[in-house]
Amino acid sequence: MRVGILGSGDVARSLAGGFLKHGHDVTLGTRTPAKLAEWAAKHPKAHVADFADAAKFGELVVLAVKGAAALDVLRMAGAANLAGKTVIDVTNPIADAPPVNGVLKFYTSLDESQMERLQREFGSARFVKAFNSVGNAFMVNPQFKGGRPTMFICGNDEASKRPVLAILEQFGWEVSDMGKAEAARAIEPLCMLWCIPGFLRNEWAHAFKLLT
Ligand SMILES: NC(=O)c1ccc[n+]([C@@H]2O[C@H](COP(=O)([O-])OP(=O)(O)OC[C@H]3O[C@@H](n4cnc5c(N)ncnc54)[C@H](OP(=O)(O)O)[C@@H]3O)[C@@H](O)[C@H]2O)c1
């Protein structure tokens, strides 16, 4: 599959490594391709481009940028380059404020998530929330004593979840589909929960699992 990843940070690079490992073609998108020169030299099969060309390249698009910049980045990517495509939304709406007793501050509310905002402005893209509730070091084939962890996903378009499900299974996850975009109101704050042991006790090696 051709995957266009919007982003150049830790998440974009970790997921790019996973897609390459599993035989997909990858283009990373950034405002400053030069900053990825070293990474690109180590990953000769990957391409680096601007946001628009990365989105155009992808049959599947991954949004992995700073939460507050997500709408701007999607505008730079161009609605036409996103139309009809599954966009995996990894972003978290973390505010520019320090955590309080280990709890991050979000700029969204429990009545409106980041992904709903993105979906509202880019109506022809098919957003699926995924990968936001775990640190980037564990996104690809994580190894935990407790077995496969669970990735919670949601999105309005059922067909667009199929490739996400396939990728998550390749990347070693169990998937729990929480339904439509509104479920991002619950899935995004899992990032806050995931980070608390890190901020309080410097424990960053865990993931969620849904037991039934
Ligand atoms: N770090 C993790 O382990 C983790 C885990 C789960 C979810 N997330 C979420 O995943 C997303 C990416 O996280 P990250 O840690 O990899 O990197 P990040 O530092 O949150 O974001 C870096 C990316 O954001 C873009 N960006 C920043 N400010 C911008 C602006 N004003 N205009 C346009 N683009 C801007 C950068 O674009 P350029 O390339 O052009 O500089 C870069 O690609 C975030 O939303 C984060 O909350 C992170």
Explain this structure.
- Helix content is 35%, strand content 16%.
- It has 9 helices and 8 strands.
- The strands form 2 sheets. Strands 3-2-1-4-5-6 form a 6-stranded parallel sheet, sandwiched between helices. A two-stranded parallel sheet has the order 7-8.
- Helix 3 (51-57) packs across helix 4 (70-77).
- The radius of gyration is 16 Å and the shape is globular.
- The model has no long low-confidence stretch (mean pLDDT 98).
- NADP nicotinamide-adenine-dinucleotide phosphate is lined by residues 7-12, 30-32, 64-67, 69, 72-73, 90-92, 94, 132, 135-136.
Would you kindly provide a brief summary of this structure?
The chain is α/β, with parallel strands linked by helices. The chain has nine helices and eight strands. The longest helix is centred in the C-terminal third of the chain and has 13 residues, at 158-170.
